[in-house]
Design brief:
Elements (H helix, E strand, L loop, with lengths): L6 E12 L2 E12 L3 E5 L6 H9 L6 E6 L2 E2 L10 E4 L11 H10 L7 H14 L15 H13 L5 E5 L7 H18 L2 E6 L2 H7 L2 E6 L2 E6 L1 H6 L4 H6 L4 E8 L3 E4 L4 E3 L8 E7 L5 E4 L7 E10 L3 E8 L3 E8 L12 E5 L5 E5 L1
Parallel strand pairs: 3-8, 3-9, 6-7, 7-8
Antiparallel strand pairs: 1-2, 1-4, 4-5, 9-10, 11-12, 11-14, 12-13, 14-20, 15-19, 16-17, 16-19, 17-18
Helix pairs in contact: 2-3, 2-4, 3-4
Length: 357
């Protein structure tokens, strides 16, 4: 008896070239069944190319793309159990909501009965909370409603995999946050695999089960959002995902990094040989206190403060070193430090990420 595949998507040594340009280079990737995976990276890193190879809009130059355990190389998009929601939604403006959602069903052969199409359209609209909008014109819908129409159209064919190409990019921040929650809820309810392409770190970390960080056509790290943020695989991941302070120095025997201003930073990275390193430190991992001379790791002067409500972000000119960003939670008005004040900063050694220079 042949067991069902546990992965919905696999890339096996996949390379994609456009003439002399290599967009994706020797990628190996597995996406488990029912997972919500985010492909995260800067523009031009290859994430959309990977998405298009899953969808069948591009074919790999080398290697194999597998969907549900079967090699999909050469299989056209319309024959794959995959649907895609595009960044601009690609809705038909001359159709109402019902006709937009029904379009894919009407292309199936043999043809589905009209009653079956109507039933499935109704189910899809209910799924995205648009049951009363079937006869509404597209131009009469808000941005969030149009996005949900595009989702319903993609889901009505009951795909095994749903591809999302930066579907929230056109929405304002408040609506984008609401749609993030809706997409998570929808994915959990349906239990199908979602693959999201985004350059927004917050979006990737908040929505997905797995984050695949890409750069220059390669995968830099594939892990849970927490692991990517707390234990970045390399300096690129540490720098790209979230906010990070970077300092160059020399790792000494005993677990300290000597900085350019002579200060010694305690670190817990013991697997590196002494030599030139770069230290990455998250702004929220830093403790801030007024005054100096209290055995702090570093001292400096506050140059700027950004009030965030429950917290504040500070830019601090560290003596002989440069600027450092610090995020400090506050309980009272007295917790706020004013620009011009002298401060001392410290941190736990385990929160400092150390990478070879």
């Amino acid at each position: 008896m042949i067991s069902a595949p546990t992965n919905d998507i696999e890339f096996r040594s996949v390379t994609k070239r456009y003439g002399a340009v290599t967009a994706v280079s020797d990628i190996n990737l597995t996406v488990p069944k029912g997972a919500f995976v985010a492909l995260l990276g800067p523009s031009g890193c290859g994430k959309t190319t990977c998405l298009r190879m899953i969808g069948g809009f591009e074919q790999p130059s080398e290697g194999e793309v597998l969907i549900a355990g079967s090699v999909a190389n050469g299989v056209p998009a319309y024959r794959r159990p995959v649907n895609m929601v595009f960044q601009q939604y690609a809705l038909f403006p001359h159709f109402d909501v019902e006709k937009n959602v029904a379009y894919g069903l009407k292309q199936l052969r043999p043809k589905l009965p009209a009653a079956e199409i109507s039933r499935r359209v109704g189910e899809a609209l209910e799924m995205v909370r648009l049951s009363g909008f079937a006869k509404r014109r597209i131009h009469e819908m808000s941005g969030g409603q149009q996005q949900r129409v595009a989702l319903a159209r993609a889901l009505v064919n009951k795909p095994s995999v749903l591809l999302l190409d930066e579907p929230l990019a056109a929405l304002d921040k408040k609506l984008r946050t609401a749609m993030q929650i809706e997409l998570q809820t929808l994915q959990r309810d349906l239990g199908i695999t979602f693959v999201l392409v985004t350059h927004d770190q917050e979006e990737a970390l908040s929505m997905s089960d797995l984050v695949c960080v890409m750069s220059a056509g390669r995968i830099r790290q594939l892990a849970t959002p927490q692991e990517v943020y707390d234990r970045p695989a390399d300096l690129f991941v540490a720098d790209f995902v979230g906010k990070t302070n970077r300092f160059d120095g020399m790792l000494e025997a005993g677990g300290t990094v000597r900085l350019g201003n002579g200060a010694a930073l305690p670190v817990s990275r013991n697997d590196l040989a002494p030599g030139a390193v770069t230290v990455a430190l998250r702004p929220e991992a830093i403790r801030l206190s007024r005054g100096t001379g209290n055995a702090a790791t570093l001292e400096g002067t506050v140059t700027h403060r950004i009030f965030l409500g429950s917290a504040a972000e500070y830019s601090i000119a560290i003596d002989g070193l440069g600027d450092m960003l610090v995020t400090a939670e506050r309980q009272t008005q007295n917790d706020l430090v004013a620009p011009g004040e002298r401060v001392a900063i410290s941190f736990d050694p385990g929160t400092a990420h150390v990478f070879p220079a």
